């Protein structure tokens, strides 16, 4: 029977579409899961979404939709990004799933009945974004110590979990299990800053909002985020206080929770105490990874420095994005992302080092041996260094991944590719090809290169799966498993490589950065066109606006702008009018052609992504991410709106 390995991400909060910094975690966890599968483990990989709470209730109200409609949409976006990034999760849990909600109610009731949860009253300072209560002494400059936002005074009846009851037990567990919290600095922080000073009992229900799992024996209360969200790691496996499924018995405890450094406290204090109270085993490890910053700043929509995964994938491809995320993030300190550094890393590592190595080795095999792989084993001392590095790289990578030093592991793999390029310079295949007596030596050199490339592709497959498959296809090999790199020489003799095909084309950095800047400007203009707020004006200001009925006679997408459509309008004048409108997310061209709309006809021209826009059509903002064009098909073309 294969050894099991249960790995989880934190579940993503469904407040809004995640940016690339949020996406790092799912890619990191996927790489670890893929590596463990490659090693032969029976892996179960869980991710999902956290969908309850006051913040969601408020967002939904602002968008004029129900909380369930709101989270359905955002959860769909989050799952879509997981799929876009080629992640191989085994289960995607949503905390609005029926089975999860029912089990959470059972967990809450069990803890209440055995005295680990009790009813009292809470009075303190509350941070809505973090959904956390704080005391005055815990605030930093009068604001939430976690997110730096304003807090408000709150007082309400609530149920509490007796953290204090389990403080000593938890402290001893952490001190006796050195590998429970990774890295070491997070362990010291939890012990010295939170546990040893004394744990206060935790508020685990709320009455001031309704969007949550009801406490079934006290319907004024909903289960607060901690018991609801953290329980997902066991409810997804079929845990039930009345008798758990075989899947739970097989996979629990988790081998590792992969989480952001900002929620280590919840996963190493609240969650273990919940499990202790339930009488269940604790997870074996919790790894708190650092953040991915935009330059030196935390990503924030308000700062205008947000990068989204789908935009990066459109520019660079999935594997290039995965590679950057995994190679750029240090073990303990925060990583950084800018378009400049992404392009630089793409060109240096992927195009120059890896792509160039594969391309010229396959090309030389085709040129000198008609693509046929052979190995007469005409060896020289220079071969030994390459072969030794290839075989020793495996153990190094295993050790680094066991410590969650993923960027170091990737650097080690890429060092093999760099050494292979150096081997080409040392052996000079082009010179060997000119001497007939050196033909067998040339064949050996090319075999060593092809085999080292195969080693590289196998080791890269958890991190860049599509790229590895492309390399295997060019090598025309079925020796792709982890067991095939235990020794050097498994590449099949007599096989014929395919024609060389570039893995990564070098990027013109100046050109791409200019395109990105133009696209960002266009996006800002689009948002202004659709999302501008209301400003108070006088009647004389409104009189300056010329509104006319116009028919949409042509419509097409605008290149380099996902949100823009180019409309050609008949407004009753002699010449057609061109308008660029930021409505492509809500309408397809054929849905608009033939309809009459209202156009602001005396708007100053503006050039958006190369399109000169002479006017603006009217549309209604019907809630967050919902826009409807105002159609006036029963009005004649050219009619003036007063």
Write the layout of secondary structure elements.
Layout: E1 4-9, E2 12-13, H1 20-38, E3 42-50, H2 54-62, H3 67-84, E4 91-94, H4 98-113, E5 117-127, E6 132-134, E7 152-161, H5 167-176, E8 181-182, H6 184-195, E9 202-203, E10 205-206, E11 213-214, E12 222-223, H7 225-230, H8 232-235, H9 246-251, E13 256-260, H10 264-278, E14 286-289, E15 292-294, H11 309-316, H12 318-328, E16 335-337, H13 339-369, H14 381-402, H15 406-427, H16 429-432, H17 439-460, H18 465-475, H19 509-531, H20 539-543, E17 547-557, E18 565-570, E19 577-581, H21 589-592, E20 596-600, E21 606-608, E22 611-613, E23 616-617, E24 619-621, E25 627-629, E26 640-641
Fold and architecture overview:
Strands 1, 2, 3, 4, 8, 13 and 14 form a seven-stranded parallel β-sheet that branches. The protein is an alpha/beta fold and 642 residues long. Helix 14 (381-402) runs parallel beside helix 17 and helix 15 packs antiparallel against helix 17 (439-460). Helix content is 43%, strand content 18%. The N and C termini lie far apart (78 Å). It is built from 21 helices and 26 strands.
């Amino acid at each position: 029977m294969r050894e099991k390995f249960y790995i989880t991400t934190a579940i993503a909060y469904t407040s809004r579409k995640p940016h690339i910094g949020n996406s790092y975690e799912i890619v990191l966890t996927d790489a670890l899961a893929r590596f463990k599968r490659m090693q032969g483990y029976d892996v179960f990989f869980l991710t999902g979404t956290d969908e309850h709470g006051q913040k969601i209730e408020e967002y939904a109200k602002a968008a004029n939709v129900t909380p369930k409609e709101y989270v359905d949409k955002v959860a769909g976006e989050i799952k879509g990004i997981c799929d876009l990034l080629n992640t191989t999760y085994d289960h995607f849990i949503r905390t609005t799933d029926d089975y999860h909600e029912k089990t959470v109610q059972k967990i809450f009731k069990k803890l209440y009945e055995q005295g680990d949860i009790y009813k009292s009253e809470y009075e303190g300072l509350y941070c809505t974004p973090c959904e956390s209560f704080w005391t005055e002494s815990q605030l930093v400059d009068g604001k939430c110590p976690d997110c730096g936002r304003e807090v408000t005074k709150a007082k309400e009846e609530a149920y509490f979990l007796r953290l204090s009851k389990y403080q000593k037990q938890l402290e001893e567990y952490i001190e006796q299990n050195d590998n429970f919290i990774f890295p070491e600095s997070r362990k010291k922080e939890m012990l010295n800053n939170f546990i040893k000073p004394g744990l206060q009992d935790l508020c685990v229900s709320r009455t001031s909002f309704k969007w949550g799992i009801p406490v079934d024996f006290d319907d004024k209360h909903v289960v607060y985020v901690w018991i609801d969200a953290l329980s997902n790691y066991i409810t997804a496996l079929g845990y039930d206080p009345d008798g758990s499924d075989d899947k739970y018995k097989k996979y629990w405890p988790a081998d590792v929770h992969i989480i952001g450094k900002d929620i280590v406290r919840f996963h190493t204090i609240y969650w273990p105490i919940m499990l202790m109270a339930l009488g269940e085993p604790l997870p074996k490890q919790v790894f708190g990874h650092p953040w991915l910053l935009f330059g030196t700043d935390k990503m924030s929509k308000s700062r205008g420095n947000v990068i989204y995964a789908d935009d990066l994938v459109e520019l660079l491809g999935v594997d290039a994005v995965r590679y950057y995320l995994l190679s750029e993030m240090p073990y303990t300190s925060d990583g950084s992302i800018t378009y400049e550094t992404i392009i630089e890393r793409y060109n240096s590592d992927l195009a120059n080092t890896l792509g160039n190595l594969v391309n010229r080795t396959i090309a030389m095999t085709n040129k000198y041996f008609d693509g046929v792989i052979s190995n007469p084993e005409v060896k020289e001392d220079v071969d030994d260094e390459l072969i030794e590095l290839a075989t020793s790289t495996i153990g190094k990578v295993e050790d680094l991944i066991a410590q969650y030093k993923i960027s170091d592991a990737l650097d080690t793999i890429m060092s093999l590719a760099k050494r292979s390029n150096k081997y080409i310079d040392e052996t000079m295949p082009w010179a060997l090809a000119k001497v007939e007596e050196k033909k067998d030596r040339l064949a050996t050199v090319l075999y060593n290169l092809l085999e080292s490339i195969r080693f590289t592709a196998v080791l890269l497959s958890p991190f860049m799966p599509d790229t590895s498959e492309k390399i295997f296809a060019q090598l025309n090999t079925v020796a792709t498993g982890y067991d095939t790199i235990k020794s050097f020489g498994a590449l099949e003799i007599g096989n014929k490589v395919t024609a060389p095909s570039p893995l990564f084309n070098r990027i013109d950095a100046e050109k791409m950065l200019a395109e990105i800047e133009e696209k960002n400007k266009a996006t800002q203009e689009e948002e202004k066109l659709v999302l501008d707020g209301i400003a108070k004006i006088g009647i004389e200001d409104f009189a300056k606006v010329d509104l006319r009925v116009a028919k949409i006679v042509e419509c097409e997408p605008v290149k380099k702008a996902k949100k823009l459509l180019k409309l050609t309008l008949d407004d009753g004048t002699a010449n057609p009018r061109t308008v660029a409108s930021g409505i492509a997310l809500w309408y397809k061209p054929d849905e608009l052609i033939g309809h009459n709309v209202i156009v602001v006809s005396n708007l100053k021209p503006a050039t958006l992504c190369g399109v000169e826009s002479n006017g603006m059509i009217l549309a209604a903002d019907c809630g967050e991410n919902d826009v409807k064009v105002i159609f006036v098909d029963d009005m004649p073309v050219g009619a003036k709106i007063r």
